[in-house]
Amino acid sequence: APHDLAIRGGTIVTASDRFRADIGIRDGRITDIAAEITGAREEIDATGLMVLPGGIDAHVHLAQPTSDGTVMADDFESGTRSAAAGGNTTVLPFAMQVKGSSLRDCVSAYHAKAEGQCYTDVSFHLVISDPTPQVLGQELPALVRDGYTSFKVFMTYDDLVLNDAELLEVFEVARRERALVMVHAEGHDAIKHMTRRLEEQGKTAPYYHAEAHHQIAEREATHRAISHAQLTDVPVMIVHVSGRDPMEQIQWARKRGMKVHAETCPQYIALTRDDLKGLNMDFEGAKYVCSPPPRDADSQAAIWEGLRDGTFEVFSSDHCPFFFENSEGTGKDNPRARTSFKWVPNGIPGVETRLPILFSEGVSKGRISLERFVALTSTNPAKLYGLYPQKGALVIGADADITLWDPTRTDTIRQENLHHGSDYTPYEGMEITGWPVRTILRGQTIVVDGQVVASKGQGAYQTRGTSSALA
Ligand code: URP
Ligand code: ZN
Ligand code: ZN
Ligand code: ZN
């Protein structure tokens, strides 16, 4: 039978090499990779373009309820629309356990929110906030077997923090059930202490979030998470690593043979703590408040080194979108947040700008190779989160999830061109060289030249296999 679609004339880029070839697609899968593929029902001319496996954003927050009434700016519809426009074909949001609730019920609630709404494929990481015997003994093992093969734990935030005893118990379950545990490593008590002292001195502007969430508190928690993982003999993924100090802990552990994996994010290469100053230590700085916060030029340099040398295997957005202002006063700019940085909702949007920022700052500026870009943004997340080789690879039999990339297209990041729900982007005005020009999900074009042409509901839920970290 003829191919449904052929992508012709482009340069295929994988995590390890690049070559000129056409791709033939049938029934949503790659069925042929050859020098010349003719006779397909439809052809896409990719001359001058790079043909990449679709972006996989392994760390996004969509439609999460918050305890303080702040409303997340993206639901599954707008969040996955924005992801698709940014060259992604799969996103992994979190299904967050609410304390006192059954984990299974929380997961069901996220499925209900996602059902029929998505433009990209999706799969959920779990968040364990209440590790009761019921959760650790029954619910979590059953969910891992059902394909929720990764979960996140938090070492800070009043509603989410686990103590060391709880962390160790959860790590043991991860080991027994062969799930990948992701850790938000920031020391809760140190942050609370720093916050109190800053507030006593009247230092309440958004900027002081960056001092309270000090890199030393991140370094300490990173070391503690690694030590607990060593004691329980389980691999860990340290997520959203912000700078040199926590990186050194990861490198220290790796040198000793510990199975520590690490993720970093665009805010740690494209922003610094100075952005939190806003215009003049004013509330504009709240637009950049996220945890961990962006650091300084030295940490940015360290992060680039880590992206090159394999300290980081995954580059995700940590898209966690809030409104800056909205009419209901449920955005970052709310009356309580004006009284102290500690009430500013933590998180920034970035699912649509993740790939352009890494490509432009990394590949176009010669800091990382094209192959490394593909590894960090698609192939490695697919492997580490149990989606490979169905996702993250351009090989025969894989899903035809493909992003066509124009490495020469230059454009400025502008809020008005983005598809997310937030009313701002922290990257406003950034000049970018290299943009996605077409996103293809299982053989169907979902975005072309910035226009979303898919209908919502084309994205499907993906059950995942075991992480390569545990294989
Ligand atoms: O500030 C951030 N990153 N908010 C999102 C939640 C998290 O910790 O990843
Ligand atoms: Zn986190
Ligand atoms: Zn690894
Ligand atoms: Zn996050």
What labels would you give this structure?
471 residues, seven-stranded mixed β-sheet, alpha/beta, single chain, Metal_Hydrolase, binds N-(aminocarbonyl)-beta-alanine, binds zinc ion, 30% helix, Dihydropyrimidinase, 21% strand, nine-stranded parallel β-sheet
Give a short summary of the structure.
It is built from 13 helices and 20 strands. The chain has about 475 residues and is of the alpha/beta class.
Describe this structure in words.
The chain has 471 residues and is α/β, with parallel strands linked by helices. It has helices at 76-85, 103-114, 133-145, 164-177, 188-200, 209-212, 215-231, 244-255, 267-270, 297-309, 335-339, 354-364, 370-384; strands spanning 5-8, 11-13, 18-20, 22-26, 29-34, 42-45, 50-53, 55-60, 88-96, 121-122, 125-127, 150-154, 180-184, 236-238, 260-264, 314-315, 402-412, 431-441, 444-448, 451-452. Strands 8, 9, 10, 11, 12, 13, 14, 15 and 16 form a nine-stranded parallel β-sheet that branches. A seven-stranded mixed β-sheet has the order 3-2-7-17-18-19-20. The model has no long low-confidence stretch (mean pLDDT 97). The site of one zinc ion has 2 residues, from loops.
Question: From the helix content, strand content and strand pairing, which structural class follows?
Answer: alpha/beta
- Which small compounds were modeled alongside the protein? N-(aminocarbonyl)-beta-alanine, zinc ion
The largest sheet is:
9 strands, parallel
- Helix count equals 13
End-to-end separation in angstroms reads: 37 Å
Number of strands: 20
- Measured as a percent range, the helix fraction is 25-40%
Shape: globular
Mean pLDDT across all amino acids: 97
Output the radius of gyration.
21 Å
Pfam family, one: Amidohydro_1
Protein name: Dihydropyrimidinase
EC number: 3.5.2.2
Keywords: Hydrolase, Metal-binding
